[in-house]
Design a protein that fits this description.
heterodimer, A: mainly beta, 4-stranded antiparallel β-sheet, B: mainly beta
Chain lengths: 116, 115
Amino acid sequence: AQKITQTQPGMFVQEKEAVTLDCTYDTSDPSYGLFWYKQPSSGEMIFLIYQGSYDQQNATEGRYSLNFQKARKSANLVISASQLGDSAMYFCAMRQMYNQGGKLIFGQGTELSVKP
Amino acid sequence: EPEVTQTPSHQVTQMGQEVILRCVPISNHLYFYWYRQILGQKVEFLVSFYNNEISEKSEIFDDQFSVERPDGSNFTLKIRSTKLEDSAMYFCASSGGQSSNQPQHFGDGTRLSIL
């Protein structure tokens, strides 16, 4: 069965510092994609970054990067130079290549608080 | 940038009543999804929809739930007889493809409150 685990319910980071949000996953399928979404207090879900299981390089998107360690089945999100607006819930999600409907499976989320 | 639009943003309904949540996916997307998020919990998959039929549904998506794409733009989720435990945020999402590298783009959600 596929599963996403985020073990940090809450994290604090000082403004302008970097922070790593952990995500581990479990799947027996060789082809899958890993996604991170941000959910501010207003509730919307914002797509941040994607990593494919066959990608050789770690994904980067502006201040977001993904530390992908396939052997460890981890896909940690790194946010550099944190800003106050980064305070939100962050969800890691997985989607399998040949899943019939392409559904996303989400982790429990990590609430990030950025301190001024 | 194109976006997924959901209406209403907040719906308050008496238990036992029917409710319809509406979504307008991104126009060139072909795959549509409904998820729900009970307050303080993770996002859960309900149903996926492609080519005018359900591709997959979760255990949550029982006979009380149905989805429809009544025209070329709207995608609706109907709950026939609401229960207290249906209170949650409901997200619609759409994707250009079902392969693993296609991100799903979410609407802002409808907060459903059952009294």
